[in-house]
Amino acid sequence: MTGWLADTFRFAWALIYWNLRKTVFRMRRGRGRCPCQDPSDSGRAGETGCDASLGWHRRERFRRVCPLLKPGADGTLRCSVDAADVRPFWGRAWGIFGATGVALYLVATLAAFAAMRGIGYRVSYLAVAWPPAWQRIDEARADYFRRRAREAYAAKNFNEATLSLSLAYDLAPSDYASGLLLAQLWQTTQPVLSNRIYVRLLREHPAQWAVTAQAWFRALLARGDYPAVAQLSAEALQRHPQQALAWAHALGFATQRTGDLAPLQSALARSTSLPVSARTVLELEKTVQTSPGAAARSALAFSSGGEERAVAFFRARRLVALGFAREALDVLDGLGSGPDERDALAVRLDAYARLGYTRPRTNLIAALLRGPVTPATVEVLGAHLIRYPSPSLYDELFRKLERSPLASTPEAYPLFLTLFCVAGSYADAGRLQTAAAAMSQALGSDSATLNAVETFFLHKSAETRVETYVPFLQPLSLEVTYALLERFAPREFRPTPAP
Asked: How far is CA 475 from the centre of its chain?
């Protein structure tokens, strides 16, 4: 074995060394001493030994390097040509090196393929063996980590799920779905990193700009990052005017919290490309924030006619918020019935609460609760009872749900989340725990974060901020999110660092 190994290493060396020596000899046209023949022999064919093979364990193995070496009449190896005709065999050398390289490459790629398949990468052998297809390896690795993330998430191992998804996104940064999910997972614990991913998604996936912007807006709003909300909303107004009313409302809400009208004024300066309804809302919002109460009341109560119903609802909501509930009811009465009865109901309830109209408010809620409780009913009443507390109406809602309980299914999770927030706003420990248990049952696991949120609701103080906890209450409807922020959020703000 030792001799065979030694001859193998000599063989690799000899293919280069002796072919080089013989190449130089041929370039000198056979003049001078032959590099490989025994100088004590005659130099004639069939009579001359081979110096080059003397150090080999088995000399006949040298014939693979130089086929000119032949057995002589006495059985010993002799050179079959005269000294002047000794020549190199580069084709043989490169053929051997090439075949050896191909064999080693096949062995290496097969070993790599087997190792990757053993790990769990869904990769083909072609992707491993063919260099132009090597990018598929990263795709297969990204797919592997995405699967790991899904499995970890299903097992409620959120740290591992986030780590696996981060690795998947690093390997396949063009994968929009992984990037969006990672940004959403990081928005509570790593807001700066989450912001960076959202910015990257907006830049690299323009076709998904609206979806990305809406997801980022929800994250920013939940954290109370109002300057970022204002900046994003102003940009969205220009990019997606078909959703301009919703973004105008978001921009107005953010500027109310920050007191900085610059984003609103900038949006108005570029409003020529906006729909008339969105431009009207922005102008009204600016008037409300820059004018005394009477001027704001006058601007909101007046209708030029022919406006969209959504603009009328905006005027009614802002009138209620400013304390002009009678004028808000006049706006609603002038609208008549329509497909947006949910919006009309929400504003009417708020107006009744502002005016202290206990009986109309009670009758309207009782009428809603006579039939089956729908998700829309829960969201509208939940947001209303958070904004305008009424212990008696709160009890009525929960008694109805206790008589006709909602099924604890994953689909019902957002509804239980709304009820959890409503119970928390009334510091009702018993119903808080009931809603938390229903949510845990719906998802099949316990949530430690809910305990922290319970503590916030039950032991609120001036030092605690609702924006710290709302990010954990997801997916929560925008209606309820706005209600929580309006009731509990202070005006001062510490922004998240820019990405």
From this structure: 16
Residue 94 corresponds to which amino acid? W
Q: Which residues pair with 71 in a beta bridge?
A: 77
**CA atoms of 100 and 310, how far apart (whole Å):** 76
d(CA 348, CA 340): 13
Residue count of the chain: 499
C-alpha 386/C-alpha 482 separation (Å) is 10
> In this predicted structure, which of 212-221, 367-376, 461-470 has the lowest mean pLDDT?
461-470
Residue 189 reports pLDDT greater than 50: yes
Quick check: pTM over 0.85?
Answer: no
CA dihedral over 434, 439, 443, 446, signed as positive or negative = negative
CA angle 289, 379, 247 (to 5 degrees): 40
Beta strands in 331-481 (DSSP E): none
- Sequence-distant (6+) residues with CB within 8 A of 10 are 55, 56
pLDDT for the residue numbered 89: 85
Helix (H) or strand (E) holding 267: helix 262-269
Prior bond of 475 cis (ω within 30°): yes
CA distance 413 to 400: 18
Contact 485, 466 (CB under 8 A): yes
* Cα Rg, the chain, nearest whole Å: 40
Residue 273 C-beta-side C-alpha neighbours within 13 Å: 12
- State the DSSP H helix or E strand holding residue 71, giving kind and residue range, or none if neither: strand 69-71
> And the tokens for 454?
């319970």
